[in-house]
Amino acid sequence: MKKKINVAVVFGGESPEHNVSLESGRAICREINPKLYKLFCIYISRSGEWFLVDSEKFINKKAVSARADVLPYPPKKCFVVCQRADKKILPLKIDVVFPIVHGTTGEDGVLQGVFELLDIPYVGSGVAASSCAINKVMTKFIAQKENIPCLEHISFSKSDLLVNRPKLELDFPLFVKPVSLGSSVGVTKVKKQSCLKKAINSAFKHDDNIMIEKGIERAREIVCGVFCDGKKPQTSVCGEVKPLKHDFFDYDAKYLDSKGFDLILPAKISKKNSEKMRSMSIGVFRALNCSGFARVDFLMDPCDEDKFYFCEINTIPGFTSHSLYPSLWEFSGIKIKALIDRLIKTALKKPTKQGIRRL
Ligand SMILES: Nc1ncnc2c1ncn2[C@@H]1O[C@H](COP(=O)(O)OP(=O)(O)O)[C@@H](O)[C@H]1O
Ligand SMILES: [Mg+2]
Fold first, then answer.
1. Containing H/E element for 347?
2. What is the pTM of this model?
3. Which of 129, 179, 92 is closest to 353 using CA atoms?
4. Which of these CATH numbers, 3.10.450.50, 1.20.140.20, 3.30.470.20, 1.10.1270.20, describes 133-149+218-347?
5. Mean pLDDT, rounded, for 55-68
6. What span, in angstroms and rounded, lies between the C-alpha atoms of 270 and 288?
7. In the prediction, which pLDDT does 57 show?
8. Quick check: 244 and 259 in contact, CB under 8 A?
9. Which of 137, 249, 251 to mutate to test the pocket of ligand 1 (most atoms within 8 A of CB)?
10. pLDDT at residue 72, as a whole number
11. Alpha-carbon distance 279 to 235, whole Å?
12. For domain 153-214, which CATH number applies: 3.30.40.230, 3.90.226.10, 1.10.730.10, 3.30.1490.20?
């Protein structure tokens, strides 16, 4: 019998998207083919401790109460010293990692850097692509270089505010957002001047850099899945996300309200525009040098479907069975189980930077 591949699914993490990551992690662990892979579930707590948790219990239980062994990953601000006389630290041999930690320190290249150092291949984008893709200002800059339309914005840091106040020449509504986060955390739609300050303060709670973007009233939101096995990136059909009873696709609509949104598959847009958005999705994916998978989101004028704009790229998109990315691919003919298998196989083919150096 062929030896099973040791795969570690890493979930949780220190960002406000912790709970979303638990759900994504659970869905992946549930769907991983046990005939091919030996599963290790690794939970990163909100404070950054790593735990090897019992897979069965994690898959079947809601909470990660079943914490087992603590991984001797260095505690904050420390190195781990293994004293020669004490051989208690046991290595856990991992062939490949599936990191599904959304947001800061998970999706932004930090976690990917750990796997690079450990020389363990991992699913998804590398360090540079991840850290660039999480930054909405950087990605818009790169998208514009690729002639992909973007909405006007200004961005600034807390210290910029002390030096010179940025000039705002955009009409309401505006969207105020942290530059590097996700799941709509810290995002506010601002309809009038008197609400702007509160929105800015709220975004600054999550990031030192924030942006104010020209808003589209009742924007249509078109999403596209990208998958790449190392050759030519492929796209799923485009879908349309319709927030229900919510002014925009906020955190509540995404995760708390079970009837918060509808995903319309395929999006009811012209073939021409769908093709354009699929090709733009590949354009951004390639320009950022992403790997494995990503979801690219666009905002569309509800009165004119020829006016659409790149919004953002998610290099670790939500991965529950009802999340957008797996749903887009299921509709395009690839089920979540097969998708996970293909992503892991792709990761195994791509050596880490350490691996490349050694060759
Ligand atoms: N410029 C905009 N015009 C209209 N709606 C927007 C705009 N920017 C963001 N939104 C709304 O806010 C949501 C979250 O913004 P987004 O930029 O996607 O950040 P996140 O990374 O947190 O998902 C979007 O899905 C959309 O509903
Ligand atoms: Mg978004």
1. helix 336-349
2. 0.95
3. 129
4. 3.30.470.20
5. 73
6. 27
7. 87
8. yes
9. 249
10. 57
11. 8
12. 3.30.1490.20
Helix (H) or strand (E) holding 136: helix 136-145
Question: Around Cβ 323, how many Cβ atoms within 10 Å?
Answer: 19
Instruction: Looking at the structure, give the CATH architecture of the domain made up of residues 5-124.
Output: 3-Layer(aba) Sandwich (3.40)
Whether residue 300 contacts residue 270, with contact meaning beta carbons closer than 8 Å, is answered with no
φ, ψ at 189 (rounded to 5°): -90, 130
Nearest to 50 by CA among 34, 62, 68: 68
ω into 74 cis (within 30 of 0): no
Ligand 1 pocket check for 216: Cβ under 6 Å: yes
Average pLDDT score over residue span 280-308: 98
How much is the mean pLDDT over the chain?
92
Question: Does 179 contact ligand 1 (Cβ within 6 A)?
Answer: no
Cβ of 123 closer than 6 Å to ligand 1, yes or no, is no
The four Cα atoms 318, 322, 326, 332 give a dihedral, to 10 degrees, of -150
Going 148 to 144 to 186 to 42, the CA torsion angle's sign is: positive
pLDDT, position 74: 64
Position 14 scores a pLDDT of: 92
319 contact partners, CB below 8 Å, separation of at least 6: 24, 25, 27, 28, 100, 325, 326, 336
Nearest C-alpha to atom 9 of ligand 1 is from which residue?
175
